[in-house]
Amino acid sequence: MHHIEKTGLVPLLREKVLEQGTPMLGICLGMQLMTEASAEGNLPGLGWIKAHTVRFPAEEGLRVPHMGWNTITAHKSCPLLTDLEAAGALLFRALLPGSVQSPEDVLTTTHYGHDFISAFACAAFSVCSSTLRKATGLACG
Question: Which structural domains are found in the chain, ordered by start?
Answer without folding.
Answer: 2-134 (3.40.50.880)
